[in-house]
């Protein structure tokens, strides 16, 4: 199992996402600079980094309500293609190159932050696990489809 984890480079993806988000947060906060975030595809990395940077910078995003608003604004309303990215979910029939667990990566990064700063978040591991479960087997339809119109 550890060998498969190592070969997936999952932890290096977590590290890269957190490092980039921390750099963006530092530029915004300490250097009072403007930051442009643009991933290769235009959405995945962008949503990942901007959502993490907001979580780092804005204490309201670390509350339960603020985190829910962050998810809705940065992932759902921004049009993250959940059906394509979570292709192994119960609601998806697609398999292919577009499958990428970016939302899961975001949840793992949030979990890593919660482990490093245990008193900073108003929510815990159970919420992150529930979000993961619903991204792959949505009981409520929140993470279904690829955009708001399809939902």
Explained architecture:
By secondary structure, the protein is mainly α. The chain has one domain (1-150). 56% of the residues lie in helices and 0% in strands. The longest helix is centred in the first third of the chain and has 20 residues, at 10-29. The radius of gyration is 15 Å and the shape is globular. It comes from Hippolais icterina. InterPro entries: Myotubularin (IPR030564), Myotubularin-like_Pase_dom (IPR010569), Prot-tyrosine_phosphatase-like (IPR029021). One of its GO terms (biological process) is negative regulation of autophagy. This is MTMR9 protein.
Features:
151 residues
Summarize the entry for a quick read.
This protein is an all-alpha fold and 151 residues long.
SSE blueprint:
Blueprint: H1 2-8, H2 10-29, H3 44-57, H4 64-76, H5 82-85, H6 102-116, H7 125-136
Helix pairs in contact: 2-3, 2-6, 3-4, 3-6, 6-7
Low-confidence runs of at least 5 consecutive residues: none
| Molecular shape | globular
Strand content: under 5%
Distance separating the two termini = 36 Å
Helix content: 55-70%
If you average the pLDDT, what whole number results? 84
Radius of gyration: 15 Å
Strand-and-helix sequence, N→C?
HHHHHHH
**Backbone structural class:** mainly alpha
Structurally, the number of domains stands at 1
Helix tally equals: 7
Largest sheet: none
How many DSSP E strands? 0
